[in-house]
Amino acid sequence: MSSLSDDKSSWRFGALGLLGAAALAVGPTALFAETYAQQHKSQRIVLVELYTSQGCSSCLPADQLQAELADRPDVLALTFPVDYWDYLGWHDTLARPANTHRQMEYSKRSRSGRVFTPQMLIDGAISVVGGERETVLDKINDREMVASLVPLSIEVKDDSVSVEVPSAPGALNGSETGKATLWLFPFDKMHVVHIGAGENAGHFGRYSHVVEDVAAMGQWSGNGAKFEHTLEESDRHHFGYAAVLQEDQAGPVLGVAWAGDVDQMQDEPMVSAPGAMGAPLTVSMPR
């Protein structure tokens, strides 16, 4: 395992560009037969993506920290389990190839040619080792000082999701393509997994806000637009739905909104305790 380890505490993308996130979206009921509609708040919402694996010996403290972040009203924490450590003896039960692909796209944009776990990406632009608690919290605080740019509006009803994006052509000044991608991420509240083999054998992993699908709703060129997405059967009745507007495909975040059941979110708050963490596992990927 040590041959894959890399003492790489953090890396960031070449240009922070224009970053922003919009208002928090909350859902008024616990039944998706009803409409979940966004309610705008003035508070800055920071997107935190965690790339983790049940087969990663360094990931459990990061998973705990993500559970704490999931309870914060100023953070949208999303967990993306990846599959490239499955060969080490345990197949991650939550991993999806689309999650690995998304992390690799970040790596290509940064020109690092590497991905690692546990990795946290903050607002699509700042990368830190997920278990380094104080660094993560400091970077989130830094991002809260950046003004929101594109206020998204999201609504989930029955088998469809609609997202409205206002006109904001100046938000794309840092884009290489002059376009942004609007992503949709259905996610669940929590999964508890008993890990039966590998370096974490015998441990229970707690995974908060696990992304169940990665769907591109369309591209945005700066003009006002409304995007519609029909949910597949497997994507219905999830705990929450996050809309993320992102420069190009894997660039800085321009806007964030989510719709879901906040009442459930506030149940059973968890506080992570600092824990021992080994070096992050790093693997070189083809560019």
In the sheet with the most strands, the strands line up as 1-7-6-3-4
Low-pLDDT parts are 1-33, 264-277
Q: Give the biggest sheet.
A: 5 strands, mixed
Q: What fraction of the residues are assigned to beta strands by DSSP? A: 25-35%
Number of helices: 4
Tally the structural domains.
1
- SSE run: EEEHEHEEEHEEEEEEEEEHE
Structural class by secondary-structure content: alpha+beta
Shape: globular
Straight-line distance between termini:
23 Å
CATH class: Alpha Beta
What CATH architecture label applies? 3-Layer(aba) Sandwich
Overall pLDDT confidence: 80
What is the CATH third-level topology name? Glutaredoxin
Radius of gyration: 18 Å
CATH superfamily name?
Glutaredoxin
What does this structure look like?
The structure is a single chain. The chain has 287 residues and is α+β, with helices and mostly antiparallel strands. The chain has a single domain (19-266), classed as Glutaredoxin (3-Layer(aba) Sandwich). Helix content is 14%, strand content 32%. Helix 1 (60-69) links the parallel strand 3 (46-52) and strand 4 (75-81). The longest helix is centred in the middle third of the chain and has 14 residues, at 97-110. The two termini are 23 Å apart.
How is the topology of this model organized?
Layout: E1 10-12, E2 35-37, E3 46-52, H1 60-69, E4 75-81, H2 97-110, E5 114-117, E6 119-122, E7 126-129, H3 133-143, E8 153-157, E9 160-165, E10 180-187, E11 190-194, E12 204-208, E13 215-220, E14 225-230, E15 240-247, E16 253-260, H4 262-265, E17 281-284
